[in-house]
């Protein structure tokens, strides 16, 4: 086994990584491809990859970030929506052995991929990642939507027509290359984070740079895709995500609040589903976390896990002290709908107060 910075992996190792993912039974999520880890490695000095060899050939890859006292996290923790190790089937690999070789006393994850047998037993919570299945084509998906919620589909279509009449012809670009459109999306998203009382991810330089890099990444397993909905010449909604051959991982959606009454975000997602199906993509992964638009659009869900794997040591104790009380508090609130609704209202109120104070 060797531990390397992502940029120090050689071409042969990267190719084996891609082959292992292609042969796995898991969905082809682009966050699990080497291109995502390579991009994180360029913006995070703590990024590492453990390469496990069997018979002189690479047999497993474990991307992670290493902090103080051996405290580790999933690569790109905080923005990565699918995490875990890339392992050859039937490889005899022990979790503690792997963590010891990496110098890790703990490894934290919040979107662990289903089927990660090394780490799933350590999960503290399971969540649903909502998905849209367009494997049978967009027409089939539209039929499902009309059956599940005929009022929703009819209302959204009517709003799209009204948007066109009042703001200009509606058009959609699935893979927009204009950097100004990406900058506009990031502005909208930052404003949304502040408005809803959440931490602004784009206030962090490394996330800004990561997204900019991935916007220019073009690989079969991991390509940045910026989708934009226009009314006339004006962008009204946009989304930046990552795609593989068969999966579009939805990541950063946002819209211009001035057009909120037209539900441009919903219109955008329907157009994305249609374009993705035409591209041969079978699934849009909307990610974990409850949201009304996900409930309206989803056809199913897949599990992801949150928790941490630990080995005895000071790092494991520090992880428990720093993370577990917070996780338990979140779980307590999440399992009590009225308390969760109050917390959500409080976040939004705090966001409004911060905005008013500027």
Automatic annotation (TrEMBL):
Alphabetical list of InterPro entries matching this protein: Acyl_CoA_acyltransferase, BioF2-like_GNAT_dom
Domain BioF2-like acetyltransferase: 154-294
Gene3D superfamilies noted in UniProt: 3.40.630.30
Pfam families documented for this protein: Acetyltransf_6
Bilayer-crossing regions: none
Name of protein: GNAT family N-acetyltransferase
């Amino acid at each position: 086994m060797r531990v390397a910075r992502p940029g120090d992996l050689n071409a042969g190792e990267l190719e084996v990584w891609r082959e292992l993912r292609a042969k796995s039974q898991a969905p082809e999520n682009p966050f699990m491809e080497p291109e995502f880890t390579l991009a994180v490695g360029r913006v995070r000095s703590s990024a590492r990859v453990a390469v496990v060899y069997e018979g002189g050939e690479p047999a497993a890859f474990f991307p992670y970030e290493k902090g103080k006292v051996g405290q580790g996290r999933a690569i790109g923790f905080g923005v990565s929506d699918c995490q875990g190790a890339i392992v050859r089937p039937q490889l005899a690999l022990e979790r503690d052995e792997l963590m010891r070789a990496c110098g890790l006393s703990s490894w934290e994850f919040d979107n662990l991929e289903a089927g990660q047998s090394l780490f799933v037993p350590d999960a503290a919570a399971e969540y649903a990642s909502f998905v849209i299945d367009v494997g049978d084509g967009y027409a089939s998906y539209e039929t499902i939507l009309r059956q599940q919620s005929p009022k929703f589909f009819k209302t959204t279509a009517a709003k799209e027509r009204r948007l066109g009449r009042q703001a200009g012809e509606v058009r959609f670009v699935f893979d927009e290359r204009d950097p100004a459109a990406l900058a506009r999306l990031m502005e909208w998203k930052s404003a949304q984070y502040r408005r809803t009382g959440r931490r602004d991810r784009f206030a962090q330089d490394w996330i800004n740079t990561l997204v900019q890099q991935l916007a220019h990444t073009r690989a079969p397993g991991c390509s940045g895709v910026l989708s934009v909905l226009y009314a006339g010449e004006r962008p009204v909604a946009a989304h930046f995500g990552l795609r593989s051959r068969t999966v579009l991982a939805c990541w950063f959606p946002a819209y211009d609040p001035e057009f909120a009454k037209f539900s441009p975000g919903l219109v955008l997602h329907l157009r994305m589903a249609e374009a993705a199906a035409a591209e041969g993509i079978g699934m849009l992964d909307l990610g974990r976390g409850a949201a009304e638009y996900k409930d309206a659009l989803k056809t199913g869900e897949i599990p992801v896990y949150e928790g941490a794997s630990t080995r005895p040591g000071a790092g494991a104790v520090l992880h428990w002290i720093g993370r577990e009380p917070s996780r338990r508090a979140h779980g307590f609130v999440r399992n009590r709908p009225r308390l969760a609704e109050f917390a959500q209202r409080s976040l939004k109120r705090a966001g409004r107060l911060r905005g008013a104070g500027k």
